[in-house]
Specification:
With 222 residues, this protein is α+β, with helices and mostly antiparallel strands. It is built from five helices and eleven strands, in the order E-E-H-H-E-H-E-E-E-H-E-E-E-E-E-H. The strands form two sheets. It has a nine-stranded antiparallel beta sheet with strand order 3-5-6-11-10-9-8-7-4, with helices on both faces.
């Protein structure tokens, strides 16, 4: 299972992904520009801005990933591993200059937090997701699959920009997830919760780790 997705923060109404259901998420991003934070964040390696494993719910037994594994985790979030052929080609996500990741698994549910740097403005990625509601991916070693994505209202949080997306992937069986994505100065923060068909995703857990990850980056100058 390569890709899944998220949403959280205030006022979440949720119905399970598995049977073609949908989630409605209230709220909007809260702009929070800070004219010196970007300079400070640029001097801090992303792994130092990542959450500690203890910030995850204990049942997820979270651990940090090395650089190669972090790139692989990002590929699973986007559904587009490096070297894969994406159709339409404009749906290929930009590769980050730097990435850090932490993930944990509980039963059949996976919770990930990603920090990215060097991927351009978040608005460009949001527009790309909006244009690419459905696309196909083919990889020499992994076969081919279909990905569909639906933008949801952004979480209300202290970020410069944000969106949420629910994503489904089929490659021998459907997989679904929910992702919260936010921008804090030059750092993009992603939290994603994925599960098997029929498994209702716990958006409170997703919101908890996303909020914690954003706050750690936001307060890096303190």
């Amino acid at each position: 299972m390569r890709s899944r997705a998220t949403v959280g923060a205030a006022a979440i109404a949720l119905v399970c992904v598995a049977a073609g259901c949908s989630r409605a998420v209230g709220g909007s991003a809260v702009p929070a520009a800070d004219n010196h934070l970007d300079v400070i964040l640029a001097t801090i390696p992303l792994p130092e801005l990542m959450l500690e494993p203890s910030a995850f719910p204990p049942e997820f037994a979270a651990a940090g990933l090395d650089a190669a594994a972090a790139q692989g985790a990002l590929a699973m979030i986007d559904g587009t591993p490096p070297g894969a052929r994406v159709t339409p080609a404009e749906c290929q996500p930009a590769m980050p200059g730097e990435v850090a990741a932490m993930e944990g698994t509980h039963d059949d549910t996976m919770l990930r937090v990603m920090l990215l740097r060097g991927v351009g403005p978040l608005g460009a990625r949001r527009d790309q997701v909006a244009r690419c509601a459905a696309f196909s991916v083919a990889a020499d070693t992994d076969g081919s699959w279909e990905v569909s994505a639906q933008l949801l209202p952004p979480p209300i949080l202290d970020v410069d920009d944000a969106f949420a997306v629910e994503q489904m992937q089929t490659d021998g069986g459907p997989a679904g997830g929910l992702s919260l994505v936010g921008q804090v100065a030059g750092v993009r923060v992603i939290a994603q919760l994925t599960g098997l068909p029929g498994r209702e995703l716990d958006t409170a857990v997703l919101d908890q780790v996303f909020t914690a990850a954003v706050q750690k980056v936001r307060h890096a100058d303190r």
